[in-house]
Amino acid sequence: MNGKLLKALNVFARTVETGNMSSAAQELMMTTSAVSQQIKQLEHELGLSLFNRSPRVLTLTEAGELYYQSCIKMLALSESASQQLQHLQNNPSGRLKLVAPVGFGGGLLSAPLQQLISQYEDIDIQLSLSDEPVDMIKAGADLAIAIGPLQDSNLIARHLVDWPLVLCVHHSHLLANEISNDIEQLTKMPRIAHISAEYALTHKATEQSVTLPAARITVNNMQSIIQLVCDGVGYAILPEPEVRSLLHSGELKPLCTDWQLPHYSVFAVTPARDILAAKTKAAIALLKASFAAISLAKAC
After folding, report:
1. pLDDT tens digit string along 25-81?
2. How many whole angstroms separate alpha carbon 150 and alpha carbon 254?
3. What residues contact residue 224 under an 8 Å CB cut-off, 6+ apart?
4. What would the pLDDT profile of 123-145 be if each residue is shown by its tens digit?
5. How far is CA 160 from CA 45, 286, 288, in A?
6. What is the DSSP letter of 212?
7. Domains identified in the chain and CATH numbers
8. N or C: which end of the chain has fewer CB within 10 A?
């Protein structure tokens, strides 16, 4: 509600409740003339008199009585809304609409989401998983996890973590039996790649940079790529945190370990608002801490 109107309504209500303008002015720390002007402005906008005025008595007109009843309801609603919004701003609560890539649903979000609902019992989470671009504004999302830089100026990206990529293949694949780090061997076998991401390899010693052979299969979903690799269809560049357990168990084998891949960046993305809700701030903080712990576990 308009701030000026709220002030005028409050002045009117206090004048009615105190019985005169001077008492209302004293209570509101205003001058009597300022109170009078506020009420006259209301009457001008309504086109009706709100008070019967006499030197000693100030009584409500019929219109004033009706307006006062509406006025106290509007002030009560405004106060209630203000308290709810303040609670929302200062206390993590309400439904958090979170959007993330499908691969994050494989366990990367388990710890931060568990912490979020454990620490803040007034928060509920609606998680949507998609590797396709999501219109956050249209979807009404509070927070999205995204890979790489953003182009949309209506969104704000906050860096969460950098994670490694790994070139790997299933242990049953012919490439897994090759002991050579010769990158030429990769030209003989089919490569699988994400439809929106390509990376070059750099030799750790010589810093020579090479581009992998064109992918024979491109997919728009990282979990599907991981499954295809596990099924022995081909080799691929995969996000290390999403396949860490498969690498540790030996189901997947790293390839060409003399070569390195760049890290990929993970961002927390929000609509471009001046103030974030407390629930969103809490979620970003827990995501950052949890993802840092995942990086530390790899380093150890």
Report:
1. 988 889 999 999 999 999 998 999 999 887 777 889 999 999 999 999 998 888 778
2. 30
3. none
4. 999 999 988 888 888 888 999 99
5. 52, 10, 5
6. P
7. 3-87 (1.10.10.10), 94-161+265-299 (3.40.190.10), 165-262 (3.40.190.290)
8. C
